[in-house]
Every structure is written in structure tokens, then in C-alpha cells.
Amino acid sequence: xxxxxxxxxxxxxxxxxxxxxxSGQVAxxxxxxxxxxxxxxxxxxxxDTSREHLAQIGGTGVFVSALRDALLAGEIxxxxxxxxxxxxxxxxxxxxxxxxxxxxxxxxxxxxDGLTFEELTASPDRVARxxxxxxxxxxxxxxxxxxxxxxxxxxxxxxxxxxxxGFVTKGELDGVVLAAAGLIRIxxxxxxTQLLSPDVVLPAxxxxxxxxxxxxxxxxxxxxxxxxxxxFTRAAVTAERSLLAALEAGCSxxxxxxxxxSPSSRLRSSRGDPKADEQAVTEMHxxxxxxxxxxxxxxxxxxxxxxPASPDDVSTPQDMGRELAAEMLAKGAAGLMGERAL
Length: 342
What we know:
Blueprint: H1 3-6, E1 9-13, H2 17-34, E2 38-42, H3 46-49, H4 54-57, H5 65-72, E3 78-82, E4 94-98, E5 107-111, H6 117-120, E6 128-131, H7 135-147, E7 152-155, H8 161-169, E8 175-179, H9 180-185, E9 194-196, E10 210-215, H10 219-225, H11 231-246, E11 255-261, H12 263-269, H13 274-279, E12 283-291, E13 298-306, H14 315-330
Parallel strand pairs: 1-2, 1-3, 6-7, 6-8
Antiparallel strand pairs: 3-10, 4-10, 5-8, 5-9, 11-12, 12-13
Helix pairs in contact: 11-14
């Protein structure tokens, strides 16, 4: 072997427990794939050090830019991001080499006394205080409470998973809402008192998916990492992120989106039988929502299209996202998002 194939691959990651857990999982997959050692390089991002709420600092790219700078400087070979943190515009000098199989995209509620959202809001004498740093979650939680004839107080919070759950265990909040995928990856999903159905709370575009990025000039590494790509997940998140981009909204905007792939399409394709692939139902159902953070006004629409026949075909899911965004804008979505990300 040459020195370049023996040298450890440097994987850039944020320092949080969740980031380290998901990067560690990717590192192990890359080790198995390449036979090369992989070392984690911890990098602090602006989003990690700022104590401002994400809506105040813009959200878009705050957890990503330091990792991308390290990639371009040659300090790391590849980086792992939570896909929902990535800006929708992909830089030409970086390539999104792989989007692995997605974890559960739903949001999860961790509430006092093991309560569900419906139970938390049931008391006419007490307004439940629910913490989240996401305007998207605030909008949909408030709208859900309104649909039940109740109300909640959504409280903006920051911090890692331990900190956020601590608000509940210490009695400061009645509940917090987190991404189920993060809880699963650090082994704490059992603490969730309710997994929130996308029928009432749509996740962030790309939630539950990871992004593996490397320099576009490193074609050999990009080809290796591409072995970890799941075309079904990539198609789904491409549609969701295309909707977000067409709405000209950043990752901190109150926008939810989820593309559901036909279960029969995924099941049959996984068998590796070309004939089964040809006969598979290849529909994708894309839902999008935009709302004011108080939940008083919402635009929620959906569309159905085809899963691309080839993993290289990104135009179909992109078109679905753009078309649904255009319909949402025609229904007044722009006026519900506050300042749009231009």
C-alpha cells in the first residue's frame, strides 16, 4: 500500500455528544468500507459557541461553516453534518458524497410525568410550557394546541440534549421537543414520552439524515464515500430541501417538509432483483408546511410524484420541491415566514 492509502482518514465533526456519536457511526462504516483507519477531528463551530437563539443568528450554516473551512484548508478529509443544518446551496468546491440511510425523521416530546402532548394541554387551569429552539416546531405546536381548543407556551431554548432534557427533569419546563433521530443515536429514545406524527408536526427538511461531505477535488475519496449513499434517502431529502430553497427560507425558518417513499419501492429494491425494481411502486409523497410561530396562520400542502429511476437523477425530486413551494407561495406562505433568507 502507498502512504496515502495507509494514512488515517481525518473526519471532521462538531464536539457535541450527538455529533460525536453520529460521526463515530460513519467512521466505523468508512473503516469497514476502505480498510483504512479513521480519526475524529473535533471542530468548534459558531453555532456551538454562540448563546443566541438560532432564529437570531440566522441558523443557516452556523454549525457547518467551520467544518467546511477545515475541509478546504486540507485540515480534514471529510466531514459529517446533520443534513438539516446544511444551507441549501451546495458550494462548487465541495461535494455531498453520501447521504446514508435516514434515521427516524419525526420529532419527539419528552414531557413531565410521562405525558403526551394531548395530556399536557388537557388542563384548563394550567398552560403547558414547552421548550424548543425551532420556530418551525413553535408554529406547529401552537397550531396543534389551537386545534384541540387549548394553548401552550412555547419557550425558546438552546443547549445540547442533556441540557434540554434537564429543563424538564428540573421542573423548569413541562416538556421539550427534540429530533427523534438524535435521541436514537445517543441511546436515549426511551425517554421520549411521545413520537409526534408528521400529520400534526412535520419535521425540518432533511431531519434524521446525515450528510457526508468532502472536497470536490478529491474524486477518489468521493467515489469511496458514495458507497454509503442511500438513493431513496437522497431523493427524499432533495425534494424537501428543494422546497426550502424555493421558499427562500433558511434552516431556522418555520418550514417543515417530509417526503415519504413508497414502502414497497424500498422493500423490493433492497432485494437486488432488477425485475422487482421494475415492478416496484415508485411514488413519493411530499408534504410542506409554513406557519406563523403563534400557530394562528398555516399553509400546508402536499404533492405526489415519482421516485427517480436513477440515483443520478436529482431533477425529479427538485422539481417536486419547487412546484410545491410555488403552490405554497401562491397561498400566501411568504407572508408567514417573517424575514426570508435571500
